[in-house]
Structures are given as structure tokens and as C-alpha cells.
Design goal:
metal ion binding, 9 helices
Length: 223
């Protein structure tokens, strides 16, 4: 089951790339690129604000799986509805249940605030990372028809060209990195902006780790 789950995750990531020239890259990436030249604080605030699912819970133990902003079948034929449903309802649901258990009785904080020190925080590393990563993923994805109406900003395009050579080359590298068998075990593939905000990097993280967690990569970066 675990292996199958992992494969699904990677195929999700690859599918994200295959959604087409616009779908996977337009609106959310534009937001990231704008964030890339902001101060670190602004980057974090923008990151924190992008999805209701990542907002501070009203009370301890109240982290919740955010509703999708589109239908479960909205990403077909690239990602089918049952795959989306399993990852959203079952996977994400389990991570949320576990992070709620792990933070019971503590002051409620946005999940983003738990990421930096997650490696030392025991169960938060897996359940908190799982909550953040999945919520981020749902928010990143956009149905193709909607994405086709948006455009990558000039600023982001310049950053992509500088970092990868071209949009097509970035997609090719992402796809190769996220392909089944390219990484051993479970994990995620990310395109991040570095601390200086002047370069994008393609990185992989194991299990539910992410680039926001201190110690996972050489430097903390922003998905
Ligand atoms: Fe998942």
C-alpha cells in the first residue's frame, strides 16, 4: 500500500507538469515570483495567506483539510477524480487528524509557523508536513480551462529563464526528477525560490519533509 501511495504521489506531481503550458504554472507561480523579490517576511506572509487551509486554526486541535477550489474531476484527464479524492480525503485527512492530536492543548498557530523547526518537533515533522504539503498542492493546481486564461508574469518568466534556461526546460527537469523510480521511496518534488529571491531551484524532499524545514536542504527555501 505504501509503495502504491508513493507512486501515486509522484504521478500526481508529474501530472501537474503535464497539465499543459498554462495549467500548472500560471497563477500560483506568478504569486511565487512576485514573492521572490520581496522580503523574507513578506514571502512568508504571502505564503501563509494563500490558502484558507493554512490559516491559523480557531482553536488548538482545529487544523482542517481545506475544500478544493475546484471539483475532484477538474484536473482530468491528467489527474483522475479517485486519485484526487484519496489524497484529499484520506491522506490529507489522516495528516490533519494526527497534527491535531500532536498539538492538543497547545496554543493554535498557523501550520506554516510549525515548519521551520519541524525536524526537532517529533510528530509535527510528518503530520504537519503532510498537512502543509497537501494544502499547498491543492492550492497550486488549477483546472486547465481556468489556467489558460492566465499568463506567467514577465518577472517570473525572467526568473525561470535565468534559472533553467526556459519554461520547457524547467518542465522537463521537473518531470524527470518526479518520475516514478527517479527518487527512492516517498517524497515530493518542488520548485522553490532561494533566500535571496533571485533564483529558482528544483529540489526533492523525502516523505513529508519540505523546503521550509530547517535542516532538510542546504538552505531554507520557499515553495
Ligand atoms: Fe498524498
Amino acid at each position: 500500500k505504501h509503495i502504491k501511495t508513493n507512486m501515486t504521489k509522484f504521478s500526481l506531481a508529474v501530472s501537474a507538469i503535464l497539465v499543459g503550458s498554462a495549467a500548472a504554472w500560471s497563477t500560483p507561480m506568478t504569486m511565487k515570483a512576485d514573492a521572490g523579490v520581496d522580503s523574507r517576511r513578506n514571502i512568508l506572509q504571502k505564503g501563509a495567506a494563500f490558502a484558507a487551509g493554512l490559516a491559523a486554526p480557531a482553536a488548538a486541535g482545529a487544523y482542517a483539510v481545506p475544500d478544493l477550489l475546484y471539483d475532484f474531476d477538474a484536473l482530468e484527464p491528467y489527474i483522475d477524480a479517485p486519485t484526487m479524492k484519496i489524497h484529499h480525503d484520506k491522506h490529507h485527512g489522516t495528516y490533519v487528524a494526527n497534527i491535531n492530536k500532536a498539538t492538543e492543548g497547545k496554543d493554535p498557530v498557523p501550520i506554516l509557523d510549525l515548519m521551520a523547526d519541524a525536524l526537532e518537533a517529533g510528530p509535527v515533522r510528518n503530520s504537519g508536513g503532510g498537512h502543509y504539503n497537501h494544502a499547498f498542492f491543492w492550492d497550486e493546481m488549477t483546472p486547465a480551462d481556468k489556467a489558460a486564461k492566465t499568463k506567467v508574469s514577465d518577472q517570473l518568466e525572467a526568473l525561470i529563464n535565468k534559472s533553467f534556461g526556459s519554461m520547457d526546460e524547467m518542465k522537463a527537469q521537473f518531470e524527470a526528477r518526479a518520475a516514478p523510480g527517479a527518487l527512492f521511496g516517498s517524497g515530493w518534488v518542488w520548485i522553490c525560490v532561494n533566500q535571496a529571491g533571485d533564483e529558482l531551484k528544483l529540489v526533492g524532499t523525502p516523505n513529508q519533509d519540505n523546503p521550509l524545514m530547517k535542516g532538510v536542504l542546504d538552505e531554507v527555501m520557499f515553495p
